[in-house]
Design a protein that fits this description.
The chain has about 140 residues and is an alpha+beta fold. The protein has 4 helices and 4 strands, in the order ααββαββα. Strand 3 and strand 4 form a beta hairpin.
Amino acid sequence: MPTTAEILDFDEPPVPAGASPWVVPPKATVISVVDPDPEWPQLASTVSNLIIDALDVRALRVEHVGSTSVPGLAAKPVLDLDLTVADPSDERVWLPRLEAAGFVLTVREPWWHEHRLLQGAPASNRAQRRFPGSP
């Protein structure tokens, strides 16, 4: 568990020699900023519920974060959700359940607060069309 000082420290640790955070290398894509969509909160709630259903009590917190979470703000049409689990490094407890729900681990940064990034399975075909590759 990080200390308050570590949380407030914005210096990123160096990537260990020979390490890469990329589990799935990124693909170049064009990202556009679009007008706010009043459906973003509901779509985020739907995907949050998908995560909670997959993890049950293992999901300590799921929050809609980033630009699509700010009412009235133009944003890139990608939903960002922040998931808190007890021990991100113990992937066997939570990762298979999210993979079964259609999410894909794309970034693993154990040197930076055990950070992980998953992309994937929007909760509906409609969300898939609007937010391809987003959780």
